[in-house]
Design goal:
182 residues; globular; Maf protein; alpha+beta; two-stranded parallel sheet; 4-stranded antiparallel sheet
Length: 182
């Protein structure tokens, strides 16, 4: 079965394709950027993004948003993660958040799927912490600063192993189960 994924991020498309292909779904990338509302409410953000994507494409599809929720700053940046990252990038992000008494964070992916009538929401999250310095490849945003719980390496350093444990994997597994059952 084919499923459209609207994203302007080639790394997210690659991960989603690898994960969903394992369970029988072919991801059809729709590489278009949808302007995201700026809010710390990630569910509101994904609902808005899903509606905008459907209006643009006119076919069933899914979109996603992945963010970091830092305990040190009461769950921010969440829906604003991209804004934080674009302004701070790896070194400054670690300088500010990786050297605190509390470096705990939650990485969360929220998927919005629209079938033409309804929006369905799927979530996956993983606990971890922010490293005190960027480690590994810096190509995929904050993968070089997030260390998942139970590991001593960042997502970047884990490489393909990330796809077995990540928040995106968890959300995509939930999504794939829904698609199979419906």
């Amino acid at each position: 079965m084919q499923i459209r994924f609207l994203s302007g991020n080639s790394h997210k498309i690659k991960e989603a394709s690898e994960i969903l292909n394992q369970v029988g779904f072919d991801v059809v990338p729709v590489t278009k950027k949808i302007e995201e509302i700026q809010t710390d409410d990630s569910t509101k953000l994904i609902r808005d993004k899903t509606i905008k994507a459907f209006r643009e494409i006119g076919r069933p599809l899914f979109v996603e948003h992945t963010g970091l929720y830092l305990n040190y700053i009461n769950g921010l940046p969440g829906g604003l993660t991209q804004v934080f990252w674009d302004n701070l990038e790896a070194d400054k992000f670690c300088e500010i958040f990786g050297d605190k008494a509390d470096t705990s964070a939650v990485a969360k992916t929220i998927i919005g799927y629209i079938d033409g009538k309804r929006i369905h929401i799927f979530e996956g999250e993983i606990n971890g912490k922010i490293s005190n310095e960027p480690l590994g490849n810096r190509e995929f945003q904050w993968d070089c600063v997030f260390i998942p719980e139970g590991f001593d390496k960042t997502f970047s350093e884990l490489g393909e192993e990330k796809n077995e444990i990540s928040m995106r994997r968890k959300a995509l597994d939930e999504f794939a189960t829904f698609l199979k059952e419906n």
